[in-house]
């Protein structure tokens, strides 16, 4: 693993400040690799990077190491957000958000490495999401027929009503194929509230963090995040939350329905699912979402019921 300019330390989970956490379990080494949004915009003379922490027990970590150091001339110049790592065809692919230069949109590109901790190198030719769309939080899913997909958010900052869409990928994961299909329009959710950013004088319905999971009952389940109205969820926080969409056919192109009950409504979100080395299913999220600077990774045990995923008691 590659050390960067930051000091490598041994830390507990609640000492790690990052957003958008993602756990990659690696049974071959009996280790976990933790990625997330950390040094997203650089600082001073230091360029933005993606970092990684390593653990054997999900409690004691070492890092941060540098997983991706952008090469000179790389298309992404800031907003290094939400890296997710998948093992595909014997190599490790990182799906990550980047913002291009002046006049260029934010999008998700694909990096590749020979080890889950990196070093990662550019794989796709720029963003895989549409060049004229403002996008983020691309994730990966391979369906039952072997079709490869990127699922991503079309940003509220461009279209007001944030959307989540899916686009087919070429088999070599270097580009997209065909036109995107729509999974959801955030404005149609009964629990959602406007999200505002006074810095750009805009409000809209935000979509974040799609993550796909094939449930035991055959459904294709998608987790995603936005902001809920007060007094909707189990504790009525009205904060950053995790919602569930599903298609009973198990197909990306199936009819998507949306759970009325939120999975999390505790000022926590941007979640993914992973199985521990002993096969226990967990949700990986950051908590709290605000105030900024206080976000930490949080791992919550979950179970599958007949109707989907529930938080374990």
Kindly list the characteristics that best describe this protein.
mainly beta; 4-stranded antiparallel sheet; 1 helix; 313 residues; globular; 24 strands; Tachylectin-2, Chain A; 6-stranded antiparallel sheet
At a glance:
Helices cover 1% and strands 50% of the residues. It is built from 1 helix and 24 strands. The mean pLDDT is 94.
Model description:
- This protein has 313 residues and is mostly beta strands.
- It has a single domain, classed as Glycosyl hydrolase domain, family 43 (Tachylectin-2, Chain A).
- 1% of the residues lie in helices and 50% in strands.
- It is built from one helix and 24 strands.
- Strands 1, 2, 3, 4, 5 and 6 form a six-stranded antiparallel sheet that branches. Strands 7-8-9-10 form a four-stranded antiparallel sheet, with no helix packed on it. A four-stranded antiparallel sheet has the order 11-12-13-14.
- A hairpin with a 5-residue loop joins strand 17 and strand 18.
- The longest helix has 4 residues.
- The N and C termini lie far apart (37 Å).
- The model has no long low-confidence stretch (mean pLDDT 94).
CATH architecture: 5 Propeller
Number of strands: 24
Cα(first) to Cα(last) distance is: 37 Å
What structural class should be given to the helix and strand makeup? mainly beta
CATH topology description: Tachylectin-2, Chain A
Radius of gyration: 18 Å
Order of helices and strands: EEEEEEEEEEEEHEEEEEEEEEEEE
Give the biggest beta sheet: 6 strands, antiparallel
What is the CATH superfamily?
Glycosyl hydrolase domain, family 43
């Amino acid at each position: 693993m590659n050390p960067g300019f930051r000091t490598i330390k041994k830390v507990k989970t609640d000492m790690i400040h990052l957003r958008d956490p993602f756990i990659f379990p690696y049974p071959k080494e009996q280790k976990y690799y933790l990625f997330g949004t950390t040094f997203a915009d650089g600082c001073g003379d230091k360029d933005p990077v993606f970092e990684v922490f390593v653990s054997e027990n999900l409690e004691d970590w070492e890092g941060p190491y540098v997983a991706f150091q952008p090469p000179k001339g790389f298309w992404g110049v800031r907003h290094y957000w939400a890296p997710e790592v998948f093992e595909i065809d014997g190599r490790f692919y990182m799906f990550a958000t980047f913002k291009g230069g002046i006049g260029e949109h934010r999008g998700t590109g694909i990096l590749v490495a020979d080890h889950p901790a990196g070093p990662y190198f550019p794989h796709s030719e720029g963003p895989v999401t549409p060049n004229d769309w403002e996008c983020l939080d691309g994730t990966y899913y391979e369906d039952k027929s072997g079709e490869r997909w990127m699922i991503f958010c079309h940003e509220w900052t461009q279209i007001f009503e944030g959307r989540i869409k899916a686009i087919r990928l070429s088999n070599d994961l270097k580009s997209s194929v065909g036109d995107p299909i729509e999974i959801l329009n955030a404005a149609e959710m009964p629990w959602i509230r406007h999200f505002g950013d006074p810095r750009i004088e805009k409000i809209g319905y935000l979509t974040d963090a799609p993550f796909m999971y094939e449930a035991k009952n055959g459904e294709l389940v998608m987790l995603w995040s936005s902001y809920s109205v007060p007094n909707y969820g189990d504790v009525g926080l009205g904060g950053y939350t995790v919602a569930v969409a599903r298609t009973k056919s198990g197909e990306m192109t199936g009819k998507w329905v949306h759970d009325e009950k939120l999975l999390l409504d505790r000022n926590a979100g941007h979640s993914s699912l992973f199985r521990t080395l002993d096969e226990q299913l967990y949700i990986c999220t950051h908590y709290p979402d605000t105030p900024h600077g206080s976000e930490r990774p949080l791992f919550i045990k979950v179970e599958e019921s007949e109707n989907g995923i529930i938080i374990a008691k």
